[in-house]
Amino acid sequence: MKGLIAGLIIVAIILVIVYYLYTEGYFYSVDINGVYVTIDSNFLGIKNSLHVSYSNTTISAHGDQDITLKIYLYNNNPLLSAKVTNVSVSHPFTLISATPVPSEISPHNNETLCIVIKTPMCNYAGAVDIIIYATEG
Hints:
The structure is a single chain. By secondary structure, this protein is an alpha+beta fold. The chain has two helices and nine strands; from the N terminus they run αβαββββββββ. The strands form two sheets. The protein has a five-stranded mixed beta sheet, with no helix packed on it. The mean pLDDT is 90.
């Protein structure tokens, strides 16, 4: 009888561990092989003067994991400020936060955006697209 109880306890522990690993996304592999950033604005002057730089490396993660990406913006316009109003990411990723948004970038100044995305709860191999929405400041 003691052996049966000990066996049931071991099976229960194994099931709890498997459930935890599954719900935390450890059964899924997410390989990001490119980050592509686009500026979306109704003002052509802002689109042309807001320059973006970032590290476009391969990222390996598991499902449901938070990843932080740093995007560097430089406003090359000598007269107009640019205001970053919103950020979005492509499916199947989820945007957790984008700081500092909203933010205003003065002429010939720069800003660093820290974007946190959550990886999907599925196997994924591909790129993530980030769209930065901007307007005149």
